[in-house]
User: What shape does this take?
Amino acid sequence: MSSAAVDVAERTAGKGTALVNSTAERVQAGRQAVIDASGQAAAVAKTTWTLIAHRRALVAGVGAAVSALGATSYLAGRRAGRRTHGPITRLTGGRI
Assistant: This one.
């Protein structure tokens, strides 16, 4: 009986140790997930702050891009509306 009780105690201790080890691994994985999430949140906050800090330059760039797009479309429309000229007219600049 004594050896059977020792065997049961050893198995129980082994199962307890395995349970403690698996719990420790899960806690470590959870801790790592929190660290990763906080790093991502910090990166998003830094990017947002950079955009806020440079908002004037950003707005100026967007305004310049819209102006360039408008000018390009205007010139393309004027180019499409012109009559075609022959080679002599093009050579003389429209004087003949």
